[in-house]
Amino acid sequence: MDEQIIKEITQNYYRILDLDSSDDKEKVWMARRFSGNISGLTTLCYHMIDLIWRHPGTNGKTICEHSDVLQGTVSKVISRLIRVGLVTVQTGEKDRRDRYYSLTALGEELAQIHAAMHQLKDKKIEAILTQFNAAERDTIAAFVKKMLELEQSAL
User: Fold this and answer.
1) What is the largest CA-CA distance in the chain?
2) Residue closest to 108 by CA, chosen among 59, 33, 63, 53
3) What backbone torsions phi and psi does residue 99 show, to the nearest 5 degrees?
């Protein structure tokens, strides 16, 4: 194998991972369009907001199932979103231990901005992928899938 190209791919992969920070371009883009304060929100926070937006009145178990995130992590993220006024919680009528989550007006606004950002990003990704032929896109898809599996596995 060509060691130089492997090194370049590896370095660029780590650069992509490093881009997910509090001041990455996507978060800055959303912050400029949002009427509230989103400083300190993580990518996981945005994905929880999106999930609740698509499934209003959902509970923690459903969030775990749709996100592959542990219950303890979901609880911490949801608590943070409640504290900053993006999510509300209702207790179950039959069982007071049950918790159901919905977005506040600010949460709805942020969810819509987040969805718009993904639509723009998806169009840009699609434009890049059209520069490759079908066989190359198959290779790219296989590579990205393997990288996802790597990130989801324990070292």
Assistant:
1) 63
2) 53
3) -125, 135
Q: What is the CATH number of domain 20-152?
A: 1.10.10.10
Alpha helices in the chain (DSSP H): 3-18, 25-33, 43-54, 60-67, 71-83, 105-129, 134-152
pLDDT in tens, the chain (155 residues): 689 999 999 999 888 887 777 678 899 999 999 999 988 899 999 999 999 999 999 998 899 988 888 889 999 999 999 999 999 999 878 877 888 999 999 999 999 999 999 999 999 999 999 999 999 999 999 999 999 898 888 77
First to last CA, the chain: 23
Confirm if 102 and 52 have CB atoms less than 8 A apart. yes
Whole-prediction pTM? 0.85
Identity of the amino acid at 44: L
Query: Do residues 48 and 63 make contact, with C-beta atoms less than 8 angstroms apart?
Result: yes
